């Protein structure tokens, strides 16, 4: 029945038209094309905290990806995006941006570059700002949706918002995690034949970056990720083929003991059920990324 939900909602969406320009939404379906970042148009289920904000990350008037954001911890719980085939080069000349919709509703809905001057306190209350990261030596701004998994300049620029980053230990960010992002980039480039959907998120244990004697930004304990690609090369080497259509990964955000562990999706979900504020219905991808069968049900038992 879940697959029919978007169809059932279509007649009802007309009453939400005033929300169509907003980026912080009640449901990712409220913005046209926002749900395109999600496998089967369905977000991860099981997240029960009603204080979390759903952001349709808009840049240059187009939705680019989606983020579930915690305004109290001032970090994303996860970002979900579609992988774009790319050569993997990194760009560092994009301006850092923030999400105005977390603090107020305007008619634009796009993320905005941080101003050079004063930023009203209400924005600091709702999200991280550049000053939160300016004096921390141990941590870097770690993308959940990394620019090297995107191809167009606009898609890449859209990853440079603080609502898409978390504090990552420098040695972890530039070492094991960057190597993993590159490994997945090469794997999906070479063996995914359709659209690849990726969800990357974090767990926390209460440690915070402090500024002016105030807790400001939560420091992740673990970083996790999973991809879903149902159309893949069936002739790929066995050690690659067993990692399709879906696979997960988990790593400690630490200076040492930070190696990245790949694992089946269900194994990752078991860990997250014990380490995230979720219920036992947690599911990262709709139907665990099992490709819908083209055969009618009465024939499926014959193959």
Automatic annotation (TrEMBL):
One Pfam family name is Endonuclease_NS
Q: Gene3D superfamilies given for it?
A: Extracellular Endonuclease, subunit A
What GO molecular-function term can you cite, just one?
hydrolase activity
SMART domains the UniProt entry points to: Endonuclease_NS, NUC
Residue ranges of domain ENPP1-3/EXOG-like endonuclease/phosphodiesterase in the record: 62-278
Alphabetic keyword roster: Signal
Give every DNA/RNA non-specific endonuclease/pyrophosphatase/phosphodiesterase domain span. 61-278
The source's domain of life comes to Eukaryota
Q: Where is the signal peptide?
A: 1-22
PANTHER family tied to this protein: ENDONUCLEASE DOMAIN-CONTAINING 1 PROTEIN ENDOD1 (PTHR21472), ENDONUCLEASE DOMAIN-CONTAINING 1 PROTEIN-LIKE (PTHR21472:SF17)
Q: What name is this protein filed under?
A: DNA/RNA non-specific endonuclease domain-containing protein
Which species? Perca flavescens (American yellow perch)
Q: What are the top taxonomic ranks of the organism?
A: Eukaryota, Metazoa, Chordata, Craniata, Vertebrata
């Amino acid at each position: 029945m879940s697959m029919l939900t978007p169809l059932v909602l279509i007649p009802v969406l007309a009453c939400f038209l005033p929300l169509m320009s907003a980026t912080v939404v009640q449901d990712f379906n409220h913005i046209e094309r926002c749900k395109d970042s999600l496998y089967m148009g369905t977000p991860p289920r099981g997240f029960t905290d009603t204080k979390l904000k759903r952001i349709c990350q808009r840049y240059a008037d187009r939705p680019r990806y989606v983020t579930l954001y915690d305004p109290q911890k001032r970090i994303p719980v996860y970002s979900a995006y579609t992988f774009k085939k790319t050569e993997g080069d990194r760009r560092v000349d994009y301006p850092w941006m923030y999400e105005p919709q977390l603090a107020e509703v305007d008619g634009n809905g796009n993320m905005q570059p941080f101003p050079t001057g004063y930023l009203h306190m209400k924005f600091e209350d709702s999200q991280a700002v550049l000053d939160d990261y300016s004096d921390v030596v141990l941590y870097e701004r770690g993308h959940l949706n990394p620019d090297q998994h995107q191809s167009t300049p606009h898609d890449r620029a859209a990853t440079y918002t603080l609502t898409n980053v978390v504090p990552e230990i420098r040695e972890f960010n530039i070492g094991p995690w960057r190597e993993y992002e590159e490994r997945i980039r090469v794997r999906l480039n070479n063996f995914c034949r359709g659209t690849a959907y990726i969800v990357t998120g974090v767990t926390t244990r209460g440690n915070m970056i402090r500024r002016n004697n105030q807790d400001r930004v939560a420091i992740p304990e673990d970083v996790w990720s999973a991809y879903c690609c149902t159309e893949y090369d069936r002739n790929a080497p066995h050690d690659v083929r067993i990692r399709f259509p879906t696979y997960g990964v988990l790593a400690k955000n630490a200076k040492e003991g930070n190696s990245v562990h790949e694992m089946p999706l269900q194994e990752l979900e078991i860990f997250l059920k014990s380490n995230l504020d979720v219920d036992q219905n947690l599911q990262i991808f709709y139907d665990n990324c099992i490709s819908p069968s083209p055969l009618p049900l009465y024939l499926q038992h014959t193959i």
